[in-house]
Design brief:
With 97 residues, this protein is mainly alpha-helical. It is built from four helices and two strands; from the N terminus they run βααβαα. α2 packs antiparallel against α3. 20% of the residues are buried.
Length: 97
């Protein structure tokens, strides 16, 4: 479990997400943000993220096929979780094929 306190700006980014989804990766990332909103105390910015949800953050941000959520998740959690959000796996390959 990871315990964090989000800034006002980070909370705005988290709660701003549009619920409309256009494809599977988009829906997966939006579903993650909904889960994170539910875990966040909107009054204090405190959030306790279970390990299984941290793993979802890593998949959406860094694992190929997880969607392209790295920038959004880094903007929300990079300050508190670190430059790779605590992820120790390989970086996403963004090279055009």
């Amino acid at each position: 479990m990871v315990h964090l306190k989000l800034s006002h700006q980070e909370m705005e980014l988290l709660f701003r997400q549009d619920p409309a989804a256009t494809d599977e990766d988009e829906r997966r990332g939006q579903s993650l943000l909904v889960t994170l909103r539910e875990l966040t105390n909107a009054a204090t910015g405190e959030v306790s993220i279970p390990t299984r949800v941290v793993e979802r953050i890593h998949r959406c941000a860094f694992v190929p096929g997880g969607g392209n959520w790295e920038n959004r998740l880094m903007a929300i959690f990079g300050r508190t979780m670190g430059p790779r959000l605590g992820y120790t796996g390989a970086a996403r390959d963004t090279t055009p094929h």
